[in-house]
């Protein structure tokens, strides 16, 4: 069954270097050949020690200091992209179109399908959902200790899935929303399968055409194996961060949730797995980690807008927000933050130079709003 539904921004429906910049000249005069050799070797050993310690303000006689920006090293990451949220200008990228596993970054789409469904149907997120038997077959961690038959509100399930990255909660959301979709259509089918179909519809609608979701949680140890790309996750993250309902969830540092179990009511605190939340203006989006996907992370960060006085007396306001996606990074938090800070400098330079776009490939392709 192909059901085209959902809301987009309140209207319309979707179908579902270590590098030195100058020549280095060391002038050694009045030395014997042996003295020259000794001085050279001592300089090399000194330089090597400095590099091991991460000291990048190198000084070479007659040359001066080398700034840290001139020695920026390539991050240890399989794929990444840094995009300006508003203009969609790609500030840096590597293997951004490479298909690979993305772990729980999948849950960005899971949450948005559920939130768009709730808005389109008027369903209250306080509605209780039952943890389905299929959750027990997911494998992997069960951080929240949910059990088949437990009841949890859709709102709390979203907190568990989005900030706690819980797989059982994601499966519960998929099953509950999928059931409702099937009921409304009058057709028969698998609730979770129907929900995943809507996730793929959402991806296609947002231009994420290299993405194939096969479940609502992102586990990838069983066939069929899901896949996406850094660019596609950026597209989904930009869509999600444009919706206040989603940004509220992913910006929470922690949340107290309740679960109705056979033994009675159980309450616990879910903490956000995004360690960068609140650092350098970072206010979302989602973490992901499996043995196959490696460390994955999508972040969104905001800075104060730029105000420019124009010749006609008017003021131009340029909002600043970046979206960074890293896939397959052993140090996902360190790499993402580094890319974000470097992205800010690149945005400033591009903005100051007149925001010139020489080729369409410099922009992340997303549907027009």
Structural class: alpha+beta
* CATH H level, superfamily name of the largest domain: DD-peptidase/beta-lactamase superfamily
Kindly state the percentage of residues in helix: 25-40%
The protein's oligomeric status is single chain
- Overall geometry: globular
Q: What name is given to the CATH topology of the largest domain?
A: Beta-lactamase
Q: Taking strands numbered 1, 2, ... along the chain, how are they ordered across the largest sheet?
A: 4-3-11-10-9
Question: Percent of residues in beta strands?
Answer: 15-25%
Enumerate the spans where pLDDT stays under 50 for 5 or more consecutive residues: 1-72
Helix count equals 8
End-to-end CA span: 27 Å
Largest sheet: 5 strands, antiparallel
Count the beta strands: 11
Give the averaged pLDDT, no decimals. 83
Order of helices and strands: HEEEEHEEHHHHHEEEEEH
Q: How many separate domains?
A: 2
CATH class of the largest domain: Alpha Beta
What report would you give on this structure?
The strands form 4 sheets. This protein has a 5-stranded antiparallel β-sheet with strand order 4-3-11-10-9, sandwiched between helices. With 369 residues, the protein is α+β, with helices and mostly antiparallel strands. It has helices at 33-52, 106-121, 154-162, 167-185, 191-205, 230-241, 244-250, 332-352, and strands spanning 59-60, 64-65, 79-84, 90-94, 128-130, 151-153, 254-261, 264-271, 282-290, 294-309, 315-327. The protein folds into 2 domains: 33-71, no CATH class; 79-362, Beta-lactamase (3-Layer(aba) Sandwich). It has 8 helices and 11 strands. A hairpin with a 3-residue loop joins strand 1 (59-60) and strand 2 (64-65). It is globular and about 65 Å long. Helix 2 packs across helix 5, helix 2 (106-121) runs parallel beside helix 6 and helix 3 crosses helix 4 (167-185).
